[in-house]
């Protein structure tokens, strides 16, 4: 009967093509071709009513059977292709657990912290304790008790950061107030160092910063002399910096008498060898003992104050103090 396609052949052709469809795109093309709105089978099934009455049953049955066969083939092939696509995606996405991970660089202690810990070790080895105190101090602890009365130039606005306008609360200009606190806390003998941050209204240059670090030390005992002071400082510098020329010259500090300045030889940023002042020191002034209730007739003592930043500079050949505060990893990375 002409006009009616061979449904068995049509279904066979469709199923063969679908089974071979290489991908989902080809599969969709096949679906449109055999089951789309314009497909011969769809048109045939849609026009059954126009067929001769005795053909309608057979054509309807065979047509629907063909459509089901094609639909089954489509479903089967689609499932297969989708599973394949999923497998490929998973494989492409797979993590290779044998690859090295993304490492995180290990941090390190700041060079000033490293030097502070070394300094603490050396003094702990000499029997000193490590003491701590606040960075916001009273005028009494930072100055008055240290024989620096009101009106002394070091107390003026030009050197000191005062808190809230007055002159009674300030950012400590030295860690010497920790020595006052230590002496007020108990009787001699005292062997203590006080590392910490201090503040002064200094202009910034290669060797000055308004915020820097000190390690001050205090020894109070019977019979201490300048020889003990010099021996302690020499031993300490030798331990920390190795054999290096050390210069000790007279100086003045309100809280020590006699007082000295301690410098070490170093090479500055211009390649010049020069002295760099690294500490002030001296024999504790009897007035300081009187201020904290120690008997100046019985007790003797020496004190010293090192600039940690400068010691770090000498130690590591750092020509500019500002490098220590800029947080530049290219610099800091050199101190693992
Ligand atoms: N406190 C002094 C300063 O900051 C250093 C120092 C400490 C000097 C102890 C003598 C004795 O400059």
Task: Please give a structural write-up.
There is one protein chain. The chain has helices spanning 7-20, 24-35, 40-46, 53-93, 111-125, 139-142, 176-185, 226-241, 286-292, 308-316, 329-332, and strands at residues 129-130, 136-138, 169-171, 190-199, 211-221, 246-253, 256-267, 273-284, 300-307. It is of the alpha+beta class and 336 residues long. It has two domains: 7-92; 111-332, BirA Bifunctional Protein, domain 2. Strands 1-4-5-9-8-7-6 form a seven-stranded mixed sheet, sandwiched between helices. Strands 2-3 form a two-stranded antiparallel sheet. Strand 7 (256-267) and strand 8 (273-284) form a beta hairpin. Helix 1 packs parallel to helix 4, helix 2 (24-35) runs antiparallel to helix 4 (53-93) and helix 5 (111-125) crosses helix 10. The radius of gyration is 45 Å and the shape is rod-shaped. 31% of the residues are buried. The mean pLDDT is 91.
Defining key terms:
single chain, 336 residues, alpha+beta, BirA Bifunctional Protein, domain 2, 2 domains, seven-stranded mixed sheet, two-stranded antiparallel sheet, 11 helices, 41% helix, binds phenylalanine
How far apart are the termini?
93 Å
Assembly type: single chain
* Major beta-sheet overview: 7 strands, mixed
The H/E string reads HHHHHEEHEHEEHEEEHEHH
Q: What secondary-structure arrangement, pairings included, does this model have?
A:
Blueprint: H1 7-20, H2 24-35, H3 40-46, H4 53-93, H5 111-125, E1 129-130, E2 136-138, H6 139-142, E3 169-171, H7 176-185, E4 190-199, E5 211-221, H8 226-241, E6 246-253, E7 256-267, E8 273-284, H9 286-292, E9 300-307, H10 308-316, H11 329-332
Helix pairs in contact: 1-4, 2-4, 5-10
Phenylalanine is lined by residues 174, 176, 216, 253, 256, 259, 280-282, 303-305.
């Amino acid at each position: 009967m002409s006009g009616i396609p061979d449904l068995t052949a049509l279904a066979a052709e469709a199923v063969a093509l679908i089974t071979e469809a290489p991908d989902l795109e080809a599969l969709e093309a096949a679906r449109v071709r055999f089951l789309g709105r314009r497909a011969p089978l769809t048109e045939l099934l849609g026009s059954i009513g126009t067929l001769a009455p005795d053909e309608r049953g057979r054509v309807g049955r065979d047509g629907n059977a063909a459509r089901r066969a094609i639909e089954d083939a489509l479903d089967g092939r689609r499932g297969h292709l989708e599973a394949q696509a999923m497998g490929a995606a998973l494989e492409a996405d797979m993590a290779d657990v044998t690859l090295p991970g993304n490492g995180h660089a290990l941090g390190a202690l700041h060079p000033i912290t490293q030097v502070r810990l070394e300094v603490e070790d050396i003094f702990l080895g000499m029997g000193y304790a490590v003491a701590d105190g606040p960075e916001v101090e009273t005028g009494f602890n930072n100055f008055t008790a240290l024989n620096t009365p009101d009106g002394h130039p070091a107390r003026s606005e030009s050197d000191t950061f005062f808190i809230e306008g007055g002159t009674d609360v300030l950012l400590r200009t030295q860690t010497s107030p920790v020595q006052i606190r230590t002496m007020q806390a108990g009787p001699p003998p005292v062997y203590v160092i006080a590392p910490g941050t201090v503040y002064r209204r200094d202009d910034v240059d290669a060797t000055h910063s308004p915020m820097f670090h000190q390690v001050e030390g205090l020894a109070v005992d019977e019979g201490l002399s300048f020889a003990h002071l010099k021996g302690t400082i020499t031993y300490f510098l030798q331990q920390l910096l190795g054999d290096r020329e050390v210069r000790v010259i007279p100086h003045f500090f309100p809280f020590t008498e006699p007082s000295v300045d301690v410098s070490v030889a170093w090479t500055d940023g211009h390649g010049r060898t020069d002295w760099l002042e690294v500490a002030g020191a001296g024999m504790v002034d009897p007035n300081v003992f009187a201020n904290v209730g120690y008997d100046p007739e019985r007790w003797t003592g020496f004190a010293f104050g090192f600039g940690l930043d400068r010691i770090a500079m000498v130690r590591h050949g750092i020509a500019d103090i500002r490098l220590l505060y800029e947080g530049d990893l290219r610099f800091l990375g050199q101190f693992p």
